[in-house]
């Protein structure tokens, strides 16, 4: 199924805008807490990282002390969840991974250099009820194709509830209620400049501290 990213982003923006302006936001209570999950991740390119750092600095200036900012050491895009830390599995989180791990790792490593590398263009900042996200566009649906490719080739547990459609990285989460949500919306509307990165590597990581503050890389593959 083709995913219209522009439509998805507009829907999220429209859904959350009124709540955000009314300061009906979700304060992050999981930050820094132990979790256990396995996910596919893409690390951000240097240009994207530099712009993300600038956005974080400006948001902190606008709302000092009210945001939680992911550090550069764990900036990423989530491609797919393999074992999602907040889902329920018959064998438990670690038991589910242990059950599929040998076959999964063998098949995953065989996918090295079998999927074409592609570009992502980050340009759309959105204030959601749970955080500020920065969304990207691909050219020909490559991210959707990659997600489908991984699901088809690997023994991903069927209990996963989350189907990721968008392409995004988290700029900030909420520590406290904001002093002036309208000013944040104005900042977002003024900052939509595009920044391009190439996706050429996929990491399989064990997530240990939310939100990916501590991870363990289990394997990785290169794209062509």
Mean of all residue-level pLDDT scores: 94
What fold name goes in the CATH topology slot? Cyclic Phosphodiesterase, Chain: A
Number of structural units classed as domains: 1
Distance between the termini: 24 Å
* CATH class placement: Alpha Beta
- Helix/strand/pairing class, anyone? alpha+beta
Compute the gyration radius: what is it? 18 Å
Uncertain runs: none
Shape: globular
So, CATH architecture? Answer: Alpha-Beta Complex
What is the name of the CATH superfamily?
Answer: Cyclic phosphodiesterase
Task: Please list the strands of the largest sheet in the order they lie side by side.
Answer: 2-6-5-4-7
Helix-residue proportion: 25-40%
Order of helices and strands: HEHEEHEEHEHEEE
- Number of helices in the DSSP assignment: 5
| Total E-strand runs | 9
Largest sheet: 5 strands, antiparallel
- Percent of residues in beta strands? 25-35%
Characterization of the model:
The chain has a 5-stranded antiparallel beta sheet. Strands 3-1-8-9 form a 4-stranded antiparallel beta sheet. Helix content is 33%, strand content 30%. It contains 5 helices and 9 strands. With 224 residues, it is an alpha+beta fold. The relative contact order is 0.27. The chain is globular and about 50 Å long. It starts with a helix and ends with a strand.
Keywords, please?
four-stranded antiparallel beta sheet; about 35% helix; Cyclic Phosphodiesterase, Chain: A; 5 helices; alpha+beta
Write the layout of secondary structure elements.
Layout: H1 5-21, E1 34-43, H2 46-62, E2 67-68, E3 76-83, H3 93-109, E4 118-127, E5 131-137, H4 142-153, E6 168-174, H5 181-190, E7 195-199, E8 201-209, E9 214-222
Antiparallel strand pairs: 1-3, 1-8, 2-6, 4-5, 4-7, 5-6, 8-9
């Amino acid at each position: 199924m083709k995913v219209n990213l522009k439509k998805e982003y507009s829907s999220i923006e429209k859904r959350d805008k009124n709540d955000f302006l009314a300061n009906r936001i979700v304060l992050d209570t999981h930050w820094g807490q132990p979790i256990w999950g396995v996910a596919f991740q893409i690390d951000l390119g240097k240009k994207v990282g530099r712009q993300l750092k600038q956005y974080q600095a400006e948001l902190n200036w606008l709302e000092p002390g009210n945001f939680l900012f992911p550090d550069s050491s764990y900036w990423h895009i989530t491609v797919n969840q393999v074992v999602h830390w907040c889902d329920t599995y018959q064998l438990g989180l670690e038991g589910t991974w242990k059950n599929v791990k040998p076959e999964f790792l063998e098949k995953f490593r065989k996918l090295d250099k079998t999927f074409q590398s592609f570009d992502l263009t980050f340009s759309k900042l959105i204030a959601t009820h749970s955080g500020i996200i920065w969304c990207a566009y691909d050219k020909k649906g490559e991210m959707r194709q990659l997600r489908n490719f991984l699901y088809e080739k690997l023994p991903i547990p069927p209990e996963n509830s989350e189907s990721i459609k968008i392409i995004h990285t988290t700029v900030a989460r909420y520590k406290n209620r904001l002093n002036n949500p309208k000013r944040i919306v104005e900042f977002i509307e003024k900052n939509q400049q595009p920044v391009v990165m190439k996706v050429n590597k996929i990491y399989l990581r064990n997530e240990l501290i939310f939100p990916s503050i501590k991870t363990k890389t289990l394997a990785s593959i290169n794209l062509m």
